[in-house]
Amino acid sequence: TPWGTIFTAEENVQYFYGDLEDWWSSRQVFNPAGGAKAGGIIRASIAASPASEFGMDPNRNQHKDRDAYGYLVEIDVGLDGRVAYATKTGRGHRKLGAMGRVRWENMCVRTGADGKLVAGEPVVLYGANDRRGGRIYKFVSSKPYAAGMDRASIRRLLDEGAVFVAHFADLDNASGYFRRDGKDMLDPDGTAPVRGRGRWIRMSLDSTDVAPNAGRSNANNETVTLVPAGTTVGAALRDTQHNGMGGFASQSDLLKMLWTAANKIGVRELNRPEDVEWNPKGYGDHGPMLVIAFTKHGRPNALDANGVLNTNTRTGKLVDRTVRDDPLGSIFALQETGPGAFSFWALHRGSNADVPAVN
Question: Which residues face 330 on adjacent strands?
Answer without folding.
Answer: 294, 349
